[in-house]
Amino acid sequence: MRYIAALLDFLGRAVPTFELELGLALSSILLLMVGVGIGSRQHKKLVVQLNRELDLKRQLSLQIDDAPLPMLMVDAGGPITAANTQLCELFGYTSAQLVGQPLEKLIPQRFHSQHGALMRGYFAQPHARPMARGRDLFGLHKDGHEISIEIGLSAVPSGRGISVIASITDVREKKRSEQHLARTNALLSSIIRSAPFSIIAVDRDGIITAISPAGERLVGYSAAELVGRCTPVLLHDSAEMASRAQELTTELGETIEPGFEVFVAKAKRGVVEEREWHYIRKDGSRVPVSLTVTALRDQANEIQGFLGVAYDISERKRNDDYMRYLAHHDALTGLPNRSLLNDRLNMALERSQRFGKSVGLMLIDLDKFKQINDSLGHHVGDLLLTAVAERIDKCRRATDTVARLGGDEFVIVLPDIQNTADVELVAKKIIDEIKQPLQIGAQTLHPSLSIGISLYPQHAQDTKTLMETADIAMYAAKAAGRGTVQLYDDSVAERKNDPGAKPR
């Protein structure tokens, strides 16, 4: 019997094709060789055993051939006993060139020693598992180049022992994709680190996953304080979020709650929107920003998170505010100009119509300004106008508006007047203030003003007429000797055409 066992072992290693016909032929030969020593019953038992073993190996071989992945089979002794077409194509061999060869034929030389130990360990405890999990594995192509692979091992019964079926996965494309992704991530990380503006990435739930250094500087928080801990809501004004939630609810036709959703509602719908917000810094201070939020989508177009790009617009806001200021204020004195004066005057008249109080209008002219300008120069004249503007503005009530019309003319709008005495009191205060000596360089000046007053609705029913009647009253004040105040009335209007009414 030991001869029979040895022969069976030889056939299991040396007959890799597992063809049924060859198995039967060999069985017959074997029976002839040992027929003298055994009886007919033993003959039948050996034939069944040998055929069963060969049939099992044949079935495994066919299963490997039909597999969609590269696969091979080895016995405990180590030689390859089957290799399918996919595996042959992957490594560049034919099946005849691999079957019967040691498995090390497909493994780079530097891994031979450790591979032997791994295989021995596996046959000692055979169960399905991936080979060398967490390590890079390489196969050796026929032409000598290495192939990045992953291997899955499965043990199957094979006659008197077990065989191992190895499924091979070519991961070269996966490796290239991983390397490309790593390079892309490194580039994106570099861009985020060097970007001069704030970049904040969040996941689908709004939790911050990354913030650029510029973002840390802008908001005053470190990445460690924000990443994985907070949503961008921490950085925003609650009143602004509530207001925006109402706008979006109306615009989108569905309820948008104040909070993270106000920043991403448009981005979820594929709309990239830039809006002005205020970030609340860690120290509580506010900084205006322009914020753009975009959705981060995967290859299946599913949203994986959001990206908020913001930059500080404080300087732009200051410039805008300054331009608006220039559009409504006199460049020399800083007082409201004619445009802003008209707005304030119309508002005062509307308020008068609603509440029944009067509106006073003072037209103020600087006496003998042309003489000062011509004799002392325009530089002194500008300094004089600036000083006079400051003195007039100091005398007004909190609700009054002082404006410069141009040249040496100023206007004061006095809303909510109870009686004429209220206006005359302010006018007298201005006259007394202006009379104080004024030192400009080496010159000591003693300026004076002439003031004309008109009231709405007593003297005029609209802004144009109110200005005209105040101008007439101012002419009368100059004619009366300068440095005086004149309230409009019918007698003042009759003196308008007097040739000496407005001496300069």
Query: What is the count of helical runs?
Result: 18
Percent strand equals: 15-25%
Largest beta-sheet details: 6 strands, antiparallel
* Helix content, binned percent: 40-55%
Entry summary:
This protein is an alpha+beta fold and 504 residues long.
What does this structure look like?
This protein is of the alpha+beta class. It has four domains: 66 residues; 104 residues, 2-Layer Sandwich (Beta-Lactamase); 117 residues, PAS domain (Beta-Lactamase), CATH 3.30.450; 166 residues, Reverse transcriptase/Diguanylate cyclase domain (Alpha-Beta Plaits, 2-Layer Sandwich), CATH 3.30.70.270. The chain contains 18 helices and 18 strands. Strands 1, 2, 3, 4, 5 and 6 form a six-stranded antiparallel beta sheet that branches. A hairpin with a 2-residue loop joins strand 15 and strand 16. The protein is rod-shaped and about 130 Å long. The N and C termini lie far apart (144 Å). 26% of the residues are buried. The N terminus is likely disordered.
Could you name the key traits of this structure?
504 residues, alpha+beta, Beta-Lactamase, 4 domains, 6-stranded antiparallel sheet, 5-stranded antiparallel sheet, 18 strands, 24% strand
Could you outline the blueprint of secondary structure elements for this entry?
Layout: H1 2-14, H2 20-34, H3 40-66, E1 71-75, E2 80-83, H4 85-91, H5 95-98, H6 112-124, E3 129-130, E4 137-140, E5 146-158, E6 161-170, H7 172-194, E7 198-203, E8 208-211, H8 213-219, H9 223-226, H10 238-252, H11 261-268, E9 273-280, E10 286-297, E11 303-312, H12 314-328, H13 338-355, E12 358-366, H14 369-376, H15 378-395, E13 401-406, E14 409-417, H16 420-434, E15 438-440, E16 443-445, E17 449-456, H17 463-479, E18 485-487, H18 490-494
Parallel strand pairs: 17-18
Antiparallel strand pairs: 1-2, 1-6, 3-5, 4-5, 5-6, 7-8, 7-11, 9-10, 10-11, 12-14, 12-17, 13-14, 15-16
Helix pairs in contact: 2-3, 14-15, 15-16
